[in-house]
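Report of the visiting student (M.T.), summer placement. My assignment was to run the structure pipeline on a short list of targets and document each run. The first record concerns Integral membrane protein.
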Amino acid sequence: MPTPRRYQFDNQLPVPSAPQAAPVYRPEAMAAPTSYDQPPVVVQHIHQAPPDRTVQRVALGAGAGGGAVAAGVYFGPLLVAAISSMAVSLAVVALVVVVIAWGVATVVKSVGGPDGKSAAENVTKARRKRG
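After the run finished, the structure tokens were exported:
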């Protein structure tokens, strides 16, 4: 059986290369200091801290730990969101209770005849005595 043909790129091993020399640091002379005829104009921007961060910065300056600051930053908005959510839920429940009570009173007045009207009047009188 004949030997297969060999080509230039049959060998998959990389060709060793000569090691490259490490870069050499060559210090350069620094530029001469610039002299101005007039004093340079300094543009300085002064920013006021946003209100929600002021308390945290004061806490840091007062010696409170970073954990207290992180808790204030994290749990402050979280607490406001939770309380707002509960308030909205309670308002919706109160609205549903008022609508149901109004509906029941209206049905009792219209369907009950004279007995229903007297019952509604008794409930109204009882409410006035309590309030």
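The mean pLDDT is 77. Helices lie at 51-61, 66-111, 113-130. I thank the supervising group for their guidance throughout the placement.
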